[in-house]
Amino acid sequence: MSIQSERSSLEILYSISRELAASLDLHTVLERVLSLSTSNIGAERASLVVLDEKGNPIDAAIISNGELTPTTIEQMQDVITSGLAGWVIRNKKSALLNNTANDERWLFRPNSNSNITSGKSALCIPVMVHEKLVGVLTIVHTQIDFFTEEHVALQKAITEIAGVAIRNAELYKDVQNAHLRYYDLFEENIDPILITDLHGKILEANQEASRETGDEISALQQLTIADLHPLAAEKIGVNFENIPERGSIIYESSLKKNGHEILPVEVHVSQIIIADGTYLQWIFRDIQEQKKIEQLRDDLSAMLYHDLRSPLANIISSLDIMGTLLPDSPSESLKSVFNVAKRSTERMQRMIDGLLDINRLESGQQITNKQLTDFKTLVNGAIEVVQSAAKNKEITIRQQIDPDVPAVSVDAEMIRRVIINLLENAIKFSPDQSTIQIGSKKDQGFIVFWVDDRGNGIPDKFKEEIFEKFIRLKQNYPVKGLGLGLAFCKLAVQAHGGTIWVENIPQGGSRFVFSLPLSH
After folding, report:
1. How many whole angstroms from its chain centre is CA 56?
2. 514: helix, strand or coil
3. Same domain, yes or no, for 206 and 87?
């Protein structure tokens, strides 16, 4: 290559690099690459087609007799599927045809201006980025033996630059589309959304945020996120350091509306990336109706169990009187009926007491009637209560109670009902003629008690949820109920300074476990 030719090639490459640096629009990039790569060679026509990951054309520039011409999808598809360009795409190799009339890879076009039997020169080069095909460049000249090795080397260098430029333009387009999609979702979302910096300064808000807070967006941009709602510092951190790079933190709070009115909301906060910067996105879900429903449900529950106490007390008194009036040796049938009525009223009494305890413990009241109690006595008393239900299903209850466990300071009746609830659940969910295993042990200042059932086990995603009020597993669990038993157990155990959890056991079934601090 002569010094003049080398200088000319370097000037072309420099011009292409400079021109491509001026734009990130894909079609503009294609037109500039094609125009500069065919300048001063008198090409009859040329094309630069961009392909997607599946090899389909997504954009192109075509020059015919020195003029850029509009392109259609059909034209682009024709270029890449037939003739020389198709061969280059399939083989990912460059092709130099000194005389198209002598090469079977060349496809003569019926509408060509020149004689279909006359030869031409053609050069076709794949555009590669990191060994991935992103396009194909084709240049045709009317003169045979026109293209030299210098032309090939220059066009390969051009396609390398073009590949990077095409990739950058595609990435830029993807980013722009992502921003447009986010903006559409941002503005059209039915929830208030605010964007803050990592210090909580509000930078942007959607129209719903403006409507819900009663402030103009410009006014919101003068505030911090803490000005709009009480932050859950224990979850997100004092300086938002607990907010993860992926995922979000959810908590309940109250959004200030018109400066004074309070709207109960569920807050979703997460990190987002915008233009290479990290920001915080705050979404506020209106839970006003949900709170109203919860309050109605709580009021209804309170009304029911308060109104049930009086008639139930009368039934219990009547049964006590009936017990004294029974003959010394009642018939088995009479004794059985009386015992059923007695057990049923006792169960109702436990349920109502549990409901009252839930209401009391949720309001923050402390347990005041703790007494030192032998734990084994509590367990035996609970087993005695559920023995009839176990007998009806021919279920055996086996114990592994540590005889050396010291006394515990508890509300004996409350913890007894916790054990009864766990045993009743185990009986409900275990098949007939199975065995329930219970046990306890001392463990680092705590007494740990467990109940093993032989049911279907608890899916991992429900292991915390089942201890919430009104939650019942419906799938594969046909047993009916209000979903308050385990909620009472959790509140009662936590009020005593303990914890409660569930785990699945290898042989099948679930193990419900709770711990209580030992007395000192």
Report:
1. 33
2. strand
3. no
**Do 145 and 10 belong to one domain?**
yes
Q: Mapping DSSP to helix (H, G, I), strand (E, B) and coil, where does residue 265 land?
A: strand
> Does this model's pTM top 0.85?
no
Residue 256: predicted pLDDT: 87
Find out whether 423 and 484 touch, Cβ atoms under 8 Å.
no
Distances (CA, A) of 159 to 26, 70, 394: 15, 22, 81
Q: How many residues does the chain have?
A: 520
Q: How many domains does the chain have?
A: 4
- Taking each helix axis from N to C end, the angle separating 332-362 and 412-429, rounded to the nearest 10 degrees, works out to 110
Shared domain check, 172 and 29: yes
Position 184 in a domain: no
| Residue range 74-120, pLDDT digits in tens | 778 877 877 788 899 888 899 999 998 888 888 755 444 444 457 89
251 within domain boundaries: yes
- What is the rounded (10 degree) CA torsion for 391, 392, 395, 399? -30
H-state helical runs in 281-408: 288-325, 332-362, 375-392
Q: Which amino acid is at 139?
A: I
Q: What residue numbers bound the domain in which 354 lies? A: 288-365
Count CB atoms within 10 A of the CB of residue 495.
Answer: 18
As a whole number of angstroms, the distance between CA 146 and CA 140 comes to 10
Q: Is the pLDDT of residue 321 over 80?
A: yes
CA terminus-to-terminus distance, the chain:
96
